[in-house]
What we know:
SMI1/KNR4-like; 5 strands; disordered C terminus
Amino acid sequence: MVDAFDVARALRGGIPDRARAWAFVRDFAAAWAEPLADSAGTRPEELERAEETLGLALPTALREAYSLLGARHDLTGNQDPLLRPSELFVHDEFGGVLVFRSENQGCAFRGVRRRDLGQDDPPVFVQSREGNRKPTNCLSRHPRACLDAWKVCESSVTAVGAVALGHARSLPYAVAFGALIGLTSGITAAVTGALVQTETDPRYPGRVTSVTTLCALGLAPVFFPVAGVTVAVWGAAMFFTVCGGICLLAAVFGVAVPVLRRAELRKPGAEPAPSESASPSAPAPPSESASTSESAPAER
Length: 300
């Protein structure tokens, strides 16, 4: 059944209207889970009770979505769940937002602004609770200088720590050097991830992240036998010394390559520095800087 449903073909040309959106949902559910039966939708009285409690009418598109699959929690509750009608609420920010979907850790929500409730198929408003965080003064004022310094310092510290770990003569020293490597590497991983997301085309952050995660974690078991053979033949000291050398080469590479040297963390929608004029600029953010809007069919 799955082989008979081609997602790429089904989405060819986009989702221009609700009818096509609901048709795609039905076909997808039938192929990958269970077909949508009449019992898959939320009962009309539940929706009416929610409207009465909230004191507002649900947009037509949202009501249709609940009527189609509101009771199929296997489709709507695995990640960033669709709220049950009794759980719908109005968020006070941005003039009021009717929230119908919440990020599974409570970090973001999706909803419809009060001013858009009169539309049959209103835009979906997305807000992240992390969106108002301000970057540190260092990164906001001197992003390149800070990042360049961190690249060199982190790689140098990691290199020294790796070599010292290989020559540690007691467990406490080994633990201390290992902790030093973990601390610097952890911060670098976070900064690197942010840089990658900053430079990634907004359409492909998930795909790019999956590739980087595969390279960082998925390929690690492949190199375990190599590490074992190296330690067995040349000893742990030689292995960690080589690792330290690789870290130093990474520092030189990061500073020597112009694209990497010019990388900087920017606020969403900020223009690149003049020296990066060849790079495409990010699209301008909406008026509410912590939020974005997307069409309802695309959201569903």
